Amino acid sequence: xxxxxxxxxxxxxxxxxxxxxxxxxxxxxxxxxxxxxxxxxxxxxxxxxxxxxxxxxxxxxxxxxxxxxxxxxxxxxxxxxxxxxxxxxxxxxxxxxxxxxxxxxxxxxxxxxxxxxxxxxxxxxxxxxxxxxxxxxxxxxxxxxxxxxxxxxxxxxxxxxxxxxxxxxxxxxxxxxxxxxxxxxxxxxxxxxxxxxxxxxxxxxxxxxxxxxxxxxxxxxxxxxxxxxxxxxxxxx
Amino acid sequence: xxxxxxxxxxxxxxxxxxxxxxxxxxxxxxxxxxxxxxxxxxxxxxxxxxxxxxxxxxxxxxxxxxxxxxxxxxxxxxxxxxxxxxxxxxxxxxxxxxxxxxxxxxxxxxxxxxxxxxxxxxxxxxxxxxxxxxxxxxxxxxxxxxxxxxxxxxxxxxxxxxxxxxxxxxxxxxxxxxxxxxxxxxxxxxxxxxxxxxxxxxxxxxxxxxxxxxxxxxxxxxxxxxxxxxxxxxxxxxxxxxxxxxxxxxxxxxxxxxxxxxxxxxxxxxxxxxxxxxxxxxxxxxxxxxxxxxxxxxxxxxxxxxxxxxxxxxxxxxxxxxxxxxxxxxxxxxxxxxxxxxxxxxxxxxxxxxxxxxxxxxxxxxxxxxxxxxxxxxxxxxxxxxxxxxxxxxxxxxxxxxxxxxxxxxxxxxxxxxxxxxxxxxxxxx
Lengths: 237, 430
Known about the structure:
A: alpha/beta; B: alpha+beta
């Protein structure tokens, strides 16, 4: 085997460790005549089972990075590998599939379907997979995991903020995703409820979940194992 | 997402805003209801025309004097259509088998001290056979569905014979009511009465008749009648030859157009009608076959159909625009929801299907209710159109189908807009 092949083999072995790997990841928007460089050449490596916090001022690019990691957006430059697969330039259809199977989202404002029960909300990703058999069962298990099995038939408006966020977490977990992405998960909660949610995320992390979380709160960030700080679209070293 | 779940999702989406959904379907309901009602009007008109020409058999050609309205009165256009025109027709026109004629007028009818002012009907001897084929009246008490013969129409005595028509005999046949009015219980047959001063022998009385159509059973007029040979009436009552109505029976139904042409030629010859300056014949007679009537019907129906189609298109476009408008608003209101669905892995096609199904449900429900409302409105439409409105069965699947197409057409754009939302922007939407 020549040196080039050996180098390639070495590289792929190294790459295989990372559940998330980005190289020179960039995202530029055009707003009228100006170009906005939201993300400038970001290199990130996250191992399976890590709990990483992304911090920075607004406009630092942390949300942009999270959206790219969640395949909600495509980079203008660079590479993003999720579970060693290049997902940077997938079609709409393929990206939707990745979001469905491999990514779980948690949002600041919960984003539940107001007219559906907790169970239906938790089930939603499974319904889009076309699979109906056992979906209710899996959703119940997810709700049980977040401690809301008793509230399965209740609607969001009948629940507190903390309970709603837990339903959202159950939804994020239900399809057993590779990574869980959280965007300011405690932003709309009071400090005590926020604590509860962070405890839950901690517990999930302890079970082996890979979590990437955007936050501006140092205390919340302290739950993470690693903090990445961003400024002006770049990672601060 | 499975169709079942998409259906459930769409249904929940509409249910969340029931009032809005109901108001939106109103446009479709009105559109569909008016299509049903209009088609019923057209159908009823067609049926009424067909019914009124029921007596015009496929082997008959109807000829009468042509008139115009001058100074508010009907005036003949040219020469009269005479009894001798009719008499000579079977021998002069090869395709005409035989001829039946009639003439109506008014008379003073007197027996002893009783005088009646009434109308008379002067006919050829086959008047009863005509009545059978027309089928408008039947003897009272005639069993339903049993076949009618000319004999059934005779109550007492007999009808006058062809020989009596040829001779111009002074005989007559009375309607049941007229016989009762004149003879008050005495037997009229063999008695003499005076018709416009002419002495006339009563040879028979018609059985009491009623309308064959159960809905129109009024007995008064048809039983007040006096029948006499047409030749007798012409000779006795008219100084100048009157115009008669002629029904020509052709030998071969399939050649009726040819027969009609032959009759026209014959009459033009007898009445000395030639081409005018413009190259047209100014006929002084009207000649009709069943084909003519049906042809006219066809034309009217086609015109109606075009008008109707235009109306339907307009009303359903209005309904469809209503649906599109509401769906666009709905999509905007649910931008967050759409973003969430996309984030958890909904395909764009899933979103399109969800919102398209909502629009289709709206139009389908509107269609069903529209059909119901339309059917209920038909009696009202009939009242406004002299009773002529009949539900056309084909109009139901037709308007349902069109309603569905409307839903799909006008629901597509909002559904596509929903699917094209950027998930990130949608998730942030306030």
